[in-house]
UniProtKB/TrEMBL annotation, chains A, B:
GO terms for molecular function: ATP binding; phosphofructokinase activity. The keyword ATP-binding applies. Pfam families: PfkB. Residues 13-285 form the Carbohydrate kinase PfkB domain. Signal peptide: none annotated. The keyword Transferase applies. Belongs to the carbohydrate kinase PfkB family. One of its GO terms (cellular component) is cytosol. This is 1-phosphofructokinase. It comes from Jiangella aurantiaca. Keywords: ATP-binding, Kinase, Nucleotide-binding, Transferase. InterPro entries: Carboh/pur_kinase_PfkB_CS, PfkB_dom, Ribokinase-like, Tagatose/fructose_Pkinase.
Length: 305, 305
């Protein structure tokens, strides 16, 4: 089976510290130090890998942390196409205390040179030959070129590969104009990029050029637009857990749906089930496959417009 | 000039994040991410280097962070004798907010194998040939051999090199029994290791075998015992700043004093001035040399016993 190319413009090493209680101003001994490959494109690739869908991660990686991340992905059986860059790959630290509260300390992505961004585009273009789909996920480091998403999506179009983008801010609008197969903002990201009611804002992304739009709305489920059809899937009721990474699992299911050509309502229900299965796991990039199997038969998309 | 061998059994990468306000349970974007070589022996070596006293760092280093730390020391002009180990070198994260409050999240040192500890002792033994002094500073990772300090101090004795230890807990008592030239606990570390009043506890370390003992007492200054003489130096009054690393600067001055054979009260006054000069700087391992020059003439040790 040909591969899904998962581009992660802003990868990270996700670090989790466990402390009894986080007290500002105090000194804490971190127990259970956990380090994982992170970044939304990496998470999508890990979920696809868990589903048996071949994927390759393309990411700019630099410094000792970048080498660690490439090694960790390879150890997990995930192919990675590293674009070597001068800037050290960032870390994101999450401090979890005994009450379950999670405090995030996210390093910003360090800027790349324009030549390094061009090398990212060139690596993606090479990987697109014979690929099944392109996924571009996550934020962009400061200083990334405004036309990065359009360049990546144009490369996919030229290669005849369907492209999915999950991003925010100006990059979301730029992506829409490049005619992707699918955009997957969450409701907050959509509201920040396009003023107006959720459905109107999603329709605006179609008008700009996207073939389909899925808006993830947390406990309100998924809204899926294709042409002039609007579908809705309710979320799994009463779900509690770790929502980080649920959007990435949703994207993984959506890209699999585009690849198989399954009916749109079935794709949406599958995406809602896999997103819910991610909430059951402790870490982003993982899904609870038993939970997925339990949720899937209970979810059905209904046409609402 | 021959070198001071600075052993750091538990090195770290010291990371500082600046956030407007640390709020447990919230997500923060860290600005001004700063990474520095850390660990108390590393700090002592950096202060000696700033004073023009040649020093070499001996440390077990592992993983990408260990390589980073070795490179960063070399870039700073500090020789480093790396003992390669399997465990990744730990990180310590300090979150500083706009109020100046510092919240520490310290990873514990990862355990080394007994063979790796023996390699540390062997590396130190080699570096001691022709060395001016040995400094062993800082905590020990869990699982370190009980006799690590005695083995290092015995190697110094065999090489005819004076040895200084700045450690805590059972390692402090074990070090005393091995007959070091000097021990430098702080008052809390001394109280935790030896019950009783500060002066009585310090005398106990002499009885166990240390030639000299200096107890750092923060705003109460330094207490210095040599044979049956007890001296005291007051702290610089009204000093405020960053006390992290003040003890390491104090150790650097003490070891320089042992090397030059300066009179004991002068060594103590010098150590108090250099410790105060460290409080003026933002980071451990640095001293404000202008502050040092300003403080030194104002400090004098008085004999109190």
């Amino acid at each position: 089976m040909s591969r899904v190319v998962c581009v992660t413009p802003n990868p990270a090493i996700d670090v989790t510290y466990r402390v009894p209680e986080l007290t500002p101003g105090a000194s804490h001994r971190a127990a259970d130090v956990l380090e994982r490959p992170g970044g939304k494109g990496v998470n999508v690739a890990r979920v696809l890998h868990a589903l048996g869908v071949p994927a390759v991660v393309v990411a700019p990686l630099g410094g000792p942390g970048g080498r660690w991340l490439a090694d960790a992905l390879a150890d997990a059986g995930l192919p990675v196409r590293t674009v070597p860059v001068a800037a050290a790959t960032r870390r994101t630290v999450t401090v979890v205390d005994d009450s379950g509260a999670a405090t995030a300390l996210n390093e910003p992505g360090r800027p790349l040179s324009q030549a390094e961004w061009s090398a990212v585009v060139a690596a993606v273009t090479e990987e697109l030959a014979g690929a099944a789909a392109l996924v571009v996920s996550g934020s962009l480091p400061a200083g990334a070129p405004d036309d990065l998403l359009p360049r990546l999506l144009a490369a996919a179009r030229a290669a005849g590969v369907p492209a999915v983008a999950d991003t925010s801010g100006p990059a979301l609008l730029a992506a829409a104009g490049a005619g992707p197969a699918l955009l997957k903002p969450n409701a907050e990201e959509l509201a920040a990029a396009v003023p107006g009611a959720t459905l109107d804002a999603a329709r605006r992304l179609l008008t700009l050029g996207a073939d389909r739009v899925v808006v993830s709305q947390g406990a309100a489920g998924l809204l899926g637009l294709a042409g002039d059809e609007v579908w809705r899937v309710a979320a799994v009721p009463g779900l509690s857990g770790n929502p980080t990474g649920a959007g990435d699992a949703t994207v993984a299911a959506l890209v699999r749906g585009l690849m198989t050509g399954a009916p749109w309502p079935d794709v949406l229900a599958d995406a809602a089930a896999l997103g819910a299965a991610a909430v059951l796991t402790a870490a982003a990039g993982e899904v609870d496959l038993a939970g997925y199997a339990r949720f899937l038969p209970t979810l059905h998309a209904e046409r609402v417009g």
